[in-house]
Amino acid sequence: MADPRGFLTTPREVPKRRPVDVRIRDWNEVYEPQSIEHLQKQAGRCMDCGIPFCHSGCPLGNLIPEWNDLMWRGDKKEAIDRLHATNNFPEFTGRLCPAPCETACVVGINVDPVTIKQVELRTVEEAFGNGDVIPLPPDRITGKTVAVIGSGPAGLAAAQQLTRAGHTVVVYERAEKIGGLLRYGIPEFKMEKNILDRRLAQMEKEGTRFRPGINIGVDITGADLRKKYDAIVLAVGATQWRDLAIKGRENKGVYQAMEFLPWGNKQALGEIENPPINVAGKHVVILGGGDTGADCLGTSIRQGAASVTQLEIMPRPTEERPSAQPWPTYPMIFRVSSAHEEVDNRIFSVSTEEFIGDGNGNLKALKIVETKFADGKFQPVPGTERELPADFAFLAMGFTGPEKSALIDQLEVALDDRGNIKRDDKFQSSEESIYVAGDAGRGQSLIVWAIAEGRSAASAVDAYLEGESQLPSPIEPTTRSLTV
């Protein structure tokens, strides 16, 4: 194990974030560098408990006590090997995952849990810095071909696993660049895109082929795709956003979060100087209190918004773990993201009743009302209506499943009662040779689940093509996260 008394003698400490007045002037990641010595002390807090609940907290089944111990001892090469054994992209999860492993940490029963997420991130960053992340091309080529539709974390994980198994894999992406929501939905201040690009470079050297700018179902039909490839993996995500059909929705200035965030990323990367949706000097209201809402918040701040307010229909969570969500479950507690450190104008227990226009088709304000939960639904509190000035309103209320695109119709795959692409216990859709991974089959979820699903679907596809597979399958498709 790591330091036998580390969890008793060393308090939890995460890297500091750059000062707010500094970081809001740029788009760079918010954290300051952390010394390797400091990181090793944090890794030494892992107690190598008899039953490591962090394993069950992580959908990937990461071997957390093992690489904690290895990093504490300074064996960086072995540590990254153990980390990569279960996770294709720890540099993504180390930045973007909400760390259900930490809420399941045994140390966290009595004191603050181990900084698992930070050890993971630093392990892979040390490996990249030392040149220990190298291409792993297959020893042999099977002659089988696989098309992966969608280049988010699920699609990329499936593609890398199948490429390493020796199959010829082509990843199709309708956007102009590969990466899906990793590129277009995650702001630069949470993950700089060079982090994505260096991993894609590794995958290309391994043999994975990328085809961006191709809309499957339009540019290439589903029938043509089936003729060309031995198997297909649908990793198209759950991009059908939830809308708010209330009076005034047609006013200019009301946008979905995913109509706004890609332009912010292009601005951050210098690809565009004045994005079509630019909130500089304007009053912004964000509907939705989750991570996507926080991403809109941080992006609005960096664009120079005059004010930003975030609305949430749920009551303000408690700061302590609720009794109904005991350890080791993932608790719904009050959290402060880096964006909330910069501006925190959150209003809880409210809903929007109307988008008020100025008479010329432009948004002027939102009519909001306080809510209470009664009789199984949220109900407005009479007499609490008020107007909230707004030039822009961004809807960050989540997603309802995959888009009902031409591809879905052409492939004739069935949908389940939640609108997701239906699949069996081997990740296969209702059509033979067509498999489903990630949010497209699971519904909106976490990046760590997407990677786990991509790995599991790859194992199923490999077994379908070869009769058996040695690729790991960390989860079953019917396993759903009800708490994270």
Features of the shown structure:
glutamate biosynthesis; FAD/NAD(P)-binding domain; alpha/beta; metal-binding; Fumarate Reductase Iron-sulfur Protein, Chain B, domain 2; disordered C terminus; 3 domains; oxidoreductase activity, acting on the CH-NH2 group of donors, NAD or NADP as acceptor; 19 helices; Glutamate_Synthase; 33% helix; globular; 484 residues; amino-acid biosynthesis; single chain
Task: Provide a brief overview of the structure.
The chain has 484 residues and is α/β, with parallel strands linked by helices. The protein contains 19 helices and 14 strands. Pfam families: Fer4_20, Pyr_redox_2.
Say how many strands there are.
14
What characterizes the major β-sheet? 5 strands, parallel
Distance between the termini: 29 Å
From the helix content, strand content and strand pairing, which structural class follows? alpha/beta
Q: What percent of residues adopt helix (DSSP H or I)?
A: 25-40%
Give the percentage of residues in beta strands.
Answer: 5-15%
Any idea of the CATH class of the largest domain?
A: Alpha Beta
What ranges have pLDDT less than 50 throughout 5 or more consecutive residues? 479-484
Spatial sequence of strands, sheet with the most strands: 3-2-1-4-14
